Amino acid sequence: MGKSSTTTSSDRKLRPQTEMVHGGTLRTPFGETSEAMFLTSGYVYETAEQAEARFKGEDDGFVYSRFANPTVRMFEERMIALEGAEAARATATGMAAVTAAMLCQLSAGDHVVAARALFGSCRYIVEDLLPRFGIESTLVDGCDLDQWRAARKPNTKVFFLETPTNPTLDVIDLRAVAEIAHEAGARLVVDNVFATPVLQKPLEFGADVVVYSATKHIDGQGRCLGGVVLGSDQFVTDHLANFLRQTGPALSPFNAWVMLKSLETLDLRVRRHCENAIAVADFLGSQEKIARVIYPGRADHPQHNLAKAQMDMPGNMIAFEVQGGKEAAFRLANRLEVIKISNNLGDAKSLITHPATTTHQRLTPEARAELGISDAMLRLSVGLEDAADLTEDLGLALDAA
Ligand SMILES: *Cc1c(COP(=O)(O)O)cnc(C)c1O
């Protein structure tokens, strides 16, 4: 196998933006500048003895692309360098990453505690899927540390949360929740999609495992599905690697290549996303027809100080409520021209969705009310356009509505 990660003469530690450009590169003897795309399912061996050694793990070459592939490996190594993790495995989607991160370490009789405000499919995993296999779960208000404490049981193995949450952008105290989890001998798994690895590093606050939908900001241009799970060498070796190898939600080398190249611009893109979001949140806050703006970068956000302490910038997601309920929210969305209606997020294009009727439609009205998802709420993923065109688009749509 080629040399992975960036090597310098003195083995000096490189800064994140440099790792995002060079980290994990496996250069072939052709000396290509841009990383190669290895579209191969299998590998040939020089000899039968070499094949035997590979299968025994005595020779660390590649065996089969369900287990590992050079392009996928480059993506994993670049993510490891960026996140500051010991190990990682890529997956076909973000949901494959979440499912694997949970199932690889849980058995019947175990118990999971999760924040109630979760991405719809993550909530399905915790609330519906795990209990079918004898794994109990308790949902708590992620911002209430006493609820996390009270939910612990002798068989609690995993705490699970995302912060900021989707779509109401609550910010959960990672350090405090990690401590509560560890007192109970449980691992904290964090879905870090909304914050991105540029803005928030959960491992530094004590989280044990970090998962991403790479479909979002990591690709960032709406092309590919992908996911990644990061954690300690021990977690990956003892739990994750074998689970993925045997169950098979492997990332396609093509998608891995797209994501790998996207990491080169992730820092630039995410910071520009945030600058645009700050401008859009300010604009929305000044509009009479907007009843409420929820954005962690605003001083009126309930966890504004925590967001400042835990995140480098406040992110690109904004939730807001329109005066006049669902009808007014739909009218506004329908009149936008630059901002598109879509449930995706973290894209170069600004995207707006009405969570109550799309991403969180599956929940009962009571469950939505408990999460603070009203019929007047819209969720906006601010893109990379000129911020002035975005505020103009919103302003014109508000006037017309
Ligand atoms: C999109 C998303 C996922 C799922 O990712 P896919 O790549 O669509 O499978 C999980 N968690 C969060 C917070 C997300 O936004």
Plain-language structure description:
The chain is about 40% helix and about 15% strand. The N and C termini lie far apart (about 60 Å). α1 packs antiparallel against α3, α11 (about 265-285) packs parallel to α15 and α13 crosses α15 (about 385-400). It has 2 domains: about 15-265, Type I PLP-dependent aspartate aminotransferase-like (Major domain) (Aspartate Aminotransferase, domain 2), CATH 3.40.640.10; about 265-400, Alpha-Beta Complex (Aspartate Aminotransferase, domain 1), CATH 3.90.1150.10. The protein has helices at about 15-20, 50-55, 70-85, 95-105, 120-130, 145-150, 175-185, 195-200, 235-245, 255-265, 265-285, 305-310, 325-335, 365-370, 385-400; strands at about 85-90, 110-115, 135-140, 155-160, 185-190, 210-215, 225-230, 290-295, 315-320, 340, 350-355, 375-380. It is of the alpha/beta class. The strands form 2 sheets. Strands 1-7-6-5-4-2-3 form a 7-stranded mixed sheet, with helices on both faces. Strands 8-9-12-11-10 form a 5-stranded mixed sheet. It binds pyridoxal-5'-phosphate (PLP).
Write the topology of this structure.
Layout: H1 16-22, H2 48-56, H3 70-83, E1 87-91, H4 94-103, E2 111-115, H5 120-132, E3 136-140, H6 145-151, E4 156-162, H7 174-183, E5 187-191, H8 196-199, E6 209-213, E7 227-231, H9 233-247, H10 253-263, H11 266-285, E8 290-294, H12 304-310, E9 317-322, H13 325-335, E10 340-341, E11 351-353, H14 365-371, E12 377-381, H15 387-400
Parallel strand pairs: 2-3, 2-4, 4-5, 5-6, 10-11
Antiparallel strand pairs: 1-7, 6-7, 8-9, 9-12, 11-12
Helix pairs in contact: 1-3, 3-10, 4-5, 11-15, 13-15
The chain binds pyridoxal-5'-phosphate.
